Automatic annotation (TrEMBL):
Signal peptide: none annotated. One of its GO terms (biological process) is gluconeogenesis. Dihydroxyacetone phosphate binds at residues 18, 132, 264, 285. GO terms for molecular function: fructose 1,6-bisphosphate 1-phosphatase activity; fructose-bisphosphate aldolase activity; magnesium ion binding. InterPro entries: FBPase_V, FBPase_V_sf. This is Fructose-1,6-bisphosphate aldolase/phosphatase. It catalyses: beta-D-fructose 1,6-bisphosphate + H2O = beta-D-fructose 6-phosphate + phosphate; beta-D-fructose 1,6-bisphosphate = D-glyceraldehyde 3-phosphate + dihydroxyacetone phosphate. Mg(2+) 3 binds at residues 230-232. The lineage of its organism: Bacteria, Bacillati, Chloroflexota, Dehalococcoidia, Dehalococcoidales. The gene is fbp. Consists of a single catalytic domain, but remodels its active-site architecture via a large structural change to exhibit dual activities. It comes from Dehalococcoides mccartyi (strain CBDB1). Keywords: Carbohydrate metabolism, Gluconeogenesis, Hydrolase, Lyase, Magnesium, Metal-binding, Schiff base. Pathway: Carbohydrate biosynthesis; gluconeogenesis.
Amino acid sequence: MKVTLSVIKADIGGFVGHSDSHPQCLARAEKHLAEAKKKGMLIDYHITKCGDDLQLIMTHQKGINNKVIHEMAWDTFVSCTEVAKELKLYGAGQDLLCDAFSGNVKGMGPGVAEMEIDERPSEPIIIFMADKTSSGAWNLPLYKMFADPFNTIGLVIAENMHDGFSFEVHDVKESKGITFNTPEEIYDLLVFIGAPSRFAIKSVSTRKGEIAAVSSTQKLALLAGRYVGKDDPVCIVRAQGAFPAVGEILEPFTQPYLVEGWMRGSHNGPIMPVSVEDSTPTRFDGPPRVTALGFQLSNGMLIGPRDMFKDKSFDNARQKSLDMADMMRSHGPFEPHRLPLEEMEYTTMPQVSKKLAGRFKPLKD
Ligand code: F6R
Ligand code: MG
Ligand code: MG
């Protein structure tokens, strides 16, 4: 049976500040998606949040980039924004960058990850959701899951994984893409994905072309001198069989790594694996969070979720993240905690430079 899995998300208003979502907004989304399911538009759905981001997890049979599904998601966000406005939540409607829907939510603010699959006799999937970071944040864990035998022993000892995987990589600033085959091209692949602010993994497939993972990476729009559309990504990963085991998919998050985002989208900080309940970035608006919900698909029905990072085995990773957060915070406004100038979400550099222009003197040899 062909099933499309669509995860569409947006920050429609934060509670309090940018630290969490309000239950009334989630309840409004629930109402809309229940109606869509009743009408037969959706097979099933699950509403959740990651920090201040509202997440619509949906299954249907309309394929990816479907206008009806995208419009319904957009209308849901618009309706939830009304709730956010009534409650005067912070940044109500912040990710709805356009006034009217125009066929596809991509480029309109919300993030989208979708895949159409032939549901296997048993189809375990993991949906990762992150807050206070950008889409390149999936590069390191996706590489480890699908190309690093120190993480995924299946690449070495499982016959159905031994051929490796293909990585589709997007240059998000120049809007072009390339596919690398691993293991033979891992050095070439790493040249690019090691620079996650510009090159982001869009999808991973088996060498036979079966989709294994897809992220919400999309081309960035340069608006008013700054890139938009890069915030708080999601990623869908299929597990078991010809794909990595659930434990191999979660393992990269046991070693917290630095990502761009955190306070004012302008800092490097450790990504911390947490339960949905703990996706409340509060310290210096962070540190960045990642949640993982596991489902078994059953004829498109979402059996679950299991809150995968709630497990005790991620306690050490959380502690490590917190220690790394202390270390990074000790730099205050200095790089490498603060992002390099060209990567910061916003800066006063032009205004301050203008004000001080007359005081800059040419250097003598
Ligand atoms: C980062 C984020 C927050 C805000 C910060 C300032 O992605 O959402 O760190 O950037 O709280 O928010 P504003 O500018 O809305 O007052
Ligand atoms: Mg927000
Ligand atoms: Mg957010």
